[in-house]
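Record 1 of the preview.
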Amino acid sequence: MSKKLENSEIDTILADLDGWDLNEAGKLSCEIEFDDFKQAFAFMTQVALEAEQKGHHPEWYNVYNQVDIQLTTHDAGGVTDKDIQLAKFINAITA
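->
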């Protein structure tokens, strides 16, 4: 099981994690806008494949070209390294 990160640790990491913040619910959060639904869905497919391979899945919501993502590790009760790694993967494929 992964260890829940302290808010101070998360704040330090967020300084280098563009587009992400810690929301009121204590989850890593970002919103990504694409040109159209096809691009948004292709992005979600890439993330889904990576998430399944890692056994760590995002909470997300999609409407047309917008994808809203929240990351947390439920069994740890908050943000862990798993969430940070998935956020970094997401940033890498949207760069």
